UniProtKB/TrEMBL annotation:
SUPFAM superfamilies reported in the protein's UniProt record: Winged helix' DNA-binding domain
Matching PROSITE patterns: HTH_GNTR
UniProt keyword Aminoacyl-tRNA synthetase, yes or no: no
Pfam families: GntR
Name of the protein described by the UniProt record: GntR family transcriptional regulator
Lineage of producing organism: Bacteria, Bacillati, Bacillota, Bacilli, Bacillales
Domain of life the protein comes from: Bacteria
UniProt KW keywords: DNA-binding, Transcription, Transcription regulation
Length: 320
C-alpha cells in the first residue's frame, strides 16, 4: 500500500494522508466494512507523526467516509447517503431495544415505555427551545458566522458577542451573558473569557479548525499568482496567516487588506489573481470581480469532538 507522501510540495502531510486514504477507497483497495490500519501502524508505515494520521482520520470520519468503533478500530463506511442513514437508524434501534429490555426488567410494559419515551423527548425539545447560548469570539466576522452555523434544529438561540465589546463594556454585556444558559468560546480565548466572567458562569470551549478544502485550494495555487487576503479585521487576517503557517504554507506570498486600510475595494480586487476572503466580505469582493479570478472563502468549522460535546452539553442543560 504505497502512499505518495511528499514532504516539500507545500501540501500539509495530513491532507496528503487523507487524500491517499480516499484514493485507496475509490480504487477499491479498501472496501465498505474494511478495517483500516491503526493510527500507530499507519504513522509508522508512512514515517509521519501519529497526530498527522489522527487528523486525517478525524476529517474523514467527520465527512462520513470512515467510522470508528471504540475498542474495535476504524472502518470504511458506505458512501451512499441512504445506506449510511439506514446504518445509523439500525444503531439507534439497537439502543432503543436495549432500553426497552431494561424497562421490561423494571416491570414496565411496552406501552408504558413508548409513553415515557415520547413524553421525555417532548420535555427535552421544550427545554432546548428555551435555551439561550452566548458565543464569544474575538472578531465580528467569525462570531456572526458561527452563531448562524451552530444553530440546531431544536430552536436553540445562539447570540453572538465580540470579546472586545465584553471586555470594554462589561457592565453593559455581562448581565445578558450571566443570564444565558451556556457560554461558548474557542480554546484560544477560553482563559480570557473565564477571567472576565469569573465564577459567575461556566464556559464551554470548542475547537475551530480551517476547512480542509480551503487549505488544499490555497496549497494548489500556481506559483507567480498575485494573492491577497481580504477581511474586515486584522485579527481575522492574523488567524488565517497563522493557520496557513501551521499547515506548512507560511512560504506563500499573501498581501493582507482590511477595512482599516484607505484603499478602494475595487482597486484591491482588480490587482489580484487570487482573492482569499473572510465569509463577511465574499459578497463585496464578488461584486468587484471583472475578470476571471479565483476566490477562496476562508472558512473555519468546529471539529467533530466539539460539536458532539456541545450537543451533549445542551441536552444536559436544565436536567430535571
Amino acid at each position: 500500500m504505497p502512499f505518495p507522501i511528499v514532504r516539500k510540495n507545500g501540501i500539509p502531510l495530513y491532507i496528503q494522508v487523507k487524500e491517499a486514504v480516499l484514493a485507496e477507497i475509490k480504487t477499491g483497495v479498501w472496501k465498505t466494512g474494511d478495517k483500516l490500519p491503526t493510527e500507530r501502524e499507519l504513522s509508522e508505515k508512512l514515517k509521519v507523526s501519529r497526530n498527522t494520521v489522527s487528523q486525517a482520520y478525524q476529517e474523514l470520519e467527520a465527512e462520513g467516509v470512515l467510522s470508528s468503533v471504540q475498542g474495535r478500530g476504524t472502518f470504511v463506511c458506505d458512501r451512499d447517503d441512504a445506506v449510511r442513514i439506514e446504518n445509523r437508524k439500525e444503531l439507534l434501534l439497537k439502543i432503543i431495544d436495549v432500553a426497552m429490555e431494561e424497562g421490561l426488567q423494571l416491570g414496565f410494559t411496552l406501552e408504558e415505555f413508548a409513553e415515557f419515551a415520547t413524553e421525555r423527548a417532548r420535555q427535552k425539545l421544550e427545554i432546548l427551545s428555551k435555551v439561550r447560548v452566548v458565543f464569544i469570539e474575538c472578531n465580528r466576522e467569525q462570531v456572526d458566522y458561527f452563531s448562524k452555523k451552530l444553530q440546531f434544529d431544536s430552536g436553540v438561540s445562539i447570540a453572538p458577542l465580540v470579546l472586545e465589546d465584553l471586555s470594554k463594556d462589561t457592565d453593559r454585556y455581562l448581565p445578558d451573558v450571566v443570564a444565558s444558559d451556556l457560554v461558548i468560546t474557542t480554546f484560544f480565548h477560553y482563559d480570557e473569557v473565564k477571567e472576565l466572567l469569573g465564577s459567575r458562569k461556566n464556559v464551554l470551549a470548542i475547537s475551530l479548525d480551517p476547512q480542509l478544502e480551503t487549505i488544499v485550494r490555497i496549497a494548489r495555487i500556481p506559483m507567480g499568482r498575485k494573492i491577497g487576503l481580504v477581511s474586515k479585521s486584522e485579527n481575522f487576517a492574523g488567524k488565517v496567516l497563522l493557520a496557513l503557517k501551521n499547515a506548512g504554507l507560511d512560504g506563500v506570498d499573501i498581501r493582507v487588506f482590511t477595512q482599516k486600510m484607505e484603499m478602494d475595494i475595487a482597486d484591491i480586487v482588480h490587482s489580484l489573481d487570487v482573492i482569499i476572503c473572510s465569509p463577511g466580505r465574499r459578497r463585496e469582493v464578488e461584486q468587484h470581480m471583472t475578470r476571471r479570478q479565483e476566490i477562496i472563502e476562508f472558512v473555519y468549522k468546529p471539529d467533530v469532538a466539539s460539536i458532539n460535546l456541545l450537543r451533549a452539553a445542551l441536552i444536559d442543560l436544565r436536567r430535571q
